[in-house]
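Example for tutorial group B:
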């Protein structure tokens, strides 16, 4: 696997409303735990749609991993230009800071948001350009936007080899418990 799509819940779907939420670190640890062995097996690119939530937290992890794996590359492929323009200022600042650390940033449409066709075109491109998906989605915990990525990945998997690597809420909870035990020692 050379190119991996990484995505999952948006922040508000997890009831996370600022960058100081303790859960972000646990999610990032789960992402890192999945990425490291894949990079060691030859993963070259991590690509996200760049939504505020798991996508950007994964970008943060990917940028940090480049210190240990200089060949590893990180990319954001958005559906339309300036997806952050309606975000609050602190989220815009966070996004702009992350953009400085990515190896490639692009938009499928060179216009501002004008319709769902842009999202479909982005997703078509993401699935065409990747060899598998790392997805934080838990059907038992909460529906949310990652459901569509899971459905699309399952469809692609039926046509060709397309690994779906999942991260569940239980895994995040387990990391949180381990970290809390370590903190108490």
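The residue assignment follows.
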């Amino acid at each position: 696997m050379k190119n991996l799509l990484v995505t999952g819940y948006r922040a508000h779907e997890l009831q996370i409303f600022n960058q100081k939420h303790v859960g972000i670190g646990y999610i990032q640890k789960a992402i890192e735990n999945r990425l490291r062995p894949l990079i060691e097996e030859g993963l070259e690119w991590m690509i996200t749609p760049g939504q505020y939530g798991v996508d950007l937290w994964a970008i943060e992890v990917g940028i940090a991993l480049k210190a240990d794996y200089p060949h590893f590359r990180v990319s954001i492929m958005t559906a339309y230009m300036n997806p952050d323009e309606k975000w609050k200022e602190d989220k815009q600042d966070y996004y702009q800071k992350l953009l400085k650390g990515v190896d490639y940033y692009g938009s499928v449409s060179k216009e501002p948001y004008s319709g769902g066709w842009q999202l479909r075109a982005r997703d078509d491109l993401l699935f065409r350009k990747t060899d598998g998906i790392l997805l934080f989605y838990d059907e038992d915990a909460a529906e949310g936007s990652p459901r569509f990525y899971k459905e699309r990945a399952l469809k692609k998997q039926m046509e060709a080899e397309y690994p779906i690597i999942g991260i569940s809420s239980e895994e995040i909870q387990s990391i949180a418990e381990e970290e809390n035990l370590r903190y108490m020692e």
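The longest strand covers residues 3-8. Compare this with the pattern of hydrophobic and polar residues in the output above.
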